[in-house]
Predict the structure.
Amino acid sequence: MTAQNNSQNARSVNSQITDAITQTNMITLGLAPAQSIGTLYQTTAQAVGTAMQNAVANQQNMYSLSLASTTQNLQSLLSLSSATASRGTSNILNQRQLPIATASYFHPAPAAAVHHTAAPGPAAAHPAAKT
């Protein structure tokens, strides 16, 4: 007899219980898009933060490599003897030529033909002094 009572109880469910379950399901379905967008924003923020950390770390590593390279180059320069350094400097200074720009822009004016009709004198020697 108890088996029949249990089967009858299982078939009829209180309407308040079904309403509560329906409302819970609706709330869950209604909140799902907002929760998924929130998760997306958090994931994106973490990815961007990690990318910025990587960029800063790479910049610091490049600075360290640059500093090490400069230090090594200075070490090699300072290890040269003074005679070698002065010989190299004098070779550079002795081979110095005029810069190309100054030589290419210097064009002397051609000499103008001067026809003298008067007796040689100060005015005839300087064509600009004629009036």
Q: What stands out?
A: The chain has one domain: 4-96. The mean pLDDT is 76. The radius of gyration is 48 Å. The helical segments are 2-11, 15-78, 82-94, 100-105, 122-125.
